[in-house]
Amino acid sequence: MANTFPTDFLWGGAIAANQVEGAYCEDGKGLSTSDCTPNGLFGDIVDRNKVDITGIKDRAIDFYHRYPEDVALFAEMGFTCLRTSIAWTRIFPNGDEEQPNEKGLAFYDKLFDEMLKHNITPLVTLSHYEMPYYLVTQYGGWGNRKVIEFFTRYAKTVFERYKDKVKYWLTFNEINMSLHEPFTGVGLARNSSKADIYQAIHHQLVASSRAVKLCHQIIPDAKIGNMLLGAIAYPLTPKPEDVWATHTENHGWLFFGDVQARGYYPTYMNRYFKENNIELTITDQDREDLKETIDFISFSYYMSCCGTADNSLRQKGNILDMVPNPHLKASEWGWQIDPIGIRYLLNLLYERFQKPLFIVENGLGAKDKLEADGTVNDDYRINYMNDHLVQIREAINDGVEVMGYTSWGPIDLISASKAEVTKRYGFIYVDLNQDGSGTLKRYKKKSFYWYQSIISSKGATLK
């Protein structure tokens, strides 16, 4: 079996505009849903037009002004790919404008040019846990069919603007997260009914398909994929009830991939909708739009969990309610560490969809310590990533077509769940404290040099 990765394998890292850029109201940018949850996904929603607040995401790590320095560090590690996102509200501040904001468009021109100067391929997410807050307050978020039109206009604008610079695109980040955090995903209140959430999700799925069609038309040599939160569950026991409960739980998130990769709603959702009194409004045009399918499947993977018919065993995790696996250890944040799970997930997705796969988020959040000499000895991160990359290589040897790997947070950033900077993922340490103090100076961690060696050897130095 090969002990190196394919020569065309894309190596890099992944960031999101709202977690690194800062400059939240600079150069004409409008307020996003992320700006209005300053304390993360679990924080209270704030109308910043009425309340003056300051959140750590407002400045974040100031990537908006420091991107040349950071891109140069990524290039030094050997990145051939960087996943980032465009802030929708930099392009259309309210979301419903007829004309885009030129200053916002110009920023991403400069960012992509900087990446290409260093031979780093951009992988760009159209919407990463954010949308214009105005579309929530004035239109009801994705619950309103009009938002499909607004998103389509936005997608068309950026495809036309960056068609010569960006050849890899994603539509919505972790699209299945809307079931658990509807405000973050579709701009609906947390107490919204299942029917309302699934109707909003339907509108988003239609918008995704329309964006895929536009991408195929405007950039024929581009590839566009979806993005799933890979929340794979194993049966807690071999009891048939647990096996079936796990099968049903996995359907809950695989459903999104089924629609986006196959072009229609899977039959197993019919019973679910019926049992939950959900009647979706789906037009003939919607069904036609959904037939435009993605070119590849991308996903995040941080942990696995267990499925069981006994709901009393569920524990509140970072975002999802999970049943822990008694055979796995966990990180400082309670995320169970399961490297073999990524091999299992890669095989499962490839067998199910028979499309290329791209791992666009994977990493370990930890409390790193900056030493007096400016070093960070993060062997725990190296061990975590080594073990996962070994299993990815095994999946490739299994015959799975894997396009690339972009680790989550190659530079320390603000976490999505609780807007924490103490939960660090990066190979690059950023001098920033939770109270917003710090110089923002960048330091290379031990893992920086480790990842550099992995990329240069195409994985041959994995242990």
Automatic annotation (TrEMBL):
It comes from the Bacteria. One of its GO terms (molecular function) is beta-glucosidase activity. Keywords: Glycosidase, Hydrolase. The keyword Hydrolase applies. Pfam families: Glyco_hydro_1 (PF00232). GO terms for biological process: carbohydrate catabolic process. The active site is at 361 (nucleophile). GO terms for cellular component: cytosol. Coiled coil: none annotated. PROSITE patterns: GLYCOSYL_HYDROL_F1_1, GLYCOSYL_HYDROL_F1_2. Belongs to the glycosyl hydrolase 1 family. NCBIfam families: PRK09852.1. This is 6-phospho-beta-glucosidase. The lineage of its organism: Bacteria, Pseudomonadati, Pseudomonadota, Gammaproteobacteria, Orbales.
